[in-house]
Amino acid sequence: MDKRDILKHLSEELILDLTAKLISIPTVNPPGQEGDCARFIHDTLTGWGIEAELVHAPEPERPQVVAWVRGSGAGPTFILNAHMDTVPADEARWTRPVFEATREGDLLYGLGSCDMKGSLASIMAMLKALHDSGVALPGTLMAQFPMGEETDEPGTKTLLARGYVGDMAITMEPTDGRIGPATRGACWYRVGIEGPSAHCGLSAAEAPDVMHVAQRFMAEVEALHDEVSGQTHHLLDSPAARVTQCHAGETHNSRARRAELLVDRRMLPHERVEAVGADLRARLRRAIGGREGISGTVEFVDLNEATETPLDSDLVRVLSDNIRDAGAEPEVWGPPYGSDMRNFVVDRGIPCVNFGAGDFRRCHQPDECVPVSGLCHVARVTFGTVLDVISCSAVE
User: Fold this and answer.
1) 3-182+307-390 belongs to which homologous superfamily?
2) Is the pLDDT of residue 319 over 90?
3) Among 15, 96, 119, 346, which lies 20 to 30 A Cα-Cα from 113?
4) Which DSSP string do the residues of 55-99 spell out, in sequence order?
């Protein structure tokens, strides 16, 4: 049986039916409600005779799912990854049912339809198609259905650390059918500025002012933004720096004893979080300017690493070939969002791209939707890519 015969087993009707069923299972995060969805995926797959496992980590009550259609030899393992959780929905702002799939023309509405219940369904349908074909290819298709992506929890990271690894991967985040081989990173630092609490009637010579220092530091961050935003990348938006939170002051007629600010720093793949921290500390020292009685700290909070898979990689090449086979011209794009792609590339060195159906701008919004035609097109292209890779006896 050749590739075209295997592709015939991929059912668009099944993809839409599974998408509707998955939308009806709430997986809102926070608080994190993936359990019922994980069990549905696991039980459906095992009911089809597909090998699947519930992974009760990193949180036992929020299981993840890993599934396989294993190869007959020592061929490569291709991983498809789609997270189960969705963002919360303000139901008052939706004009259609939140947890019900509603089709209008080519659009399928419902929470998670685009991000990313449609991708979950597509992966399940691909597993079934390969299993039902009865063909034993040299390589293996592995599917990962992680928890917690929307709130940067270590779902995929945990699976990879536990040995659920492969040779190539696609995170099926919405890219509107474009290849997303790179993402900007982001890091966050908490800046604290402390000084004496003093009456506002005192002069600057009598007591230093924490808020004056905070203002100077914010000006430093604005200057930093102007500096780094001049950098360019062939796919990604320029770096950025912003103060996103500021909390200070105790009473209306006393100088603030403490100010706390949060800095959001967007990064390109060549930038390093350690250098960002060192730069912010230098800027804070300048803002303090030796004022006696004022001290400051810069504390690392969290990091989403910037990632990049080379455009000349086998993964990008094979995916591009399959897009052409489906009658379209490949388009390479730099997604402005983060994804679990970083765990594959940064943590394990596994070539990975974002590739999925739907416009990311419809995600995290009322009346989220995904084009049915796009969903089916991406599923076919992805499945063709998987088949090409796992048909090889080894990764080149």
Assistant:
1) Zn peptidases (3.40.630.10)
2) yes
3) 346
4) E--S-TTS-EEEEEE--SSS--EEEEE----B----GGG-SS-TT
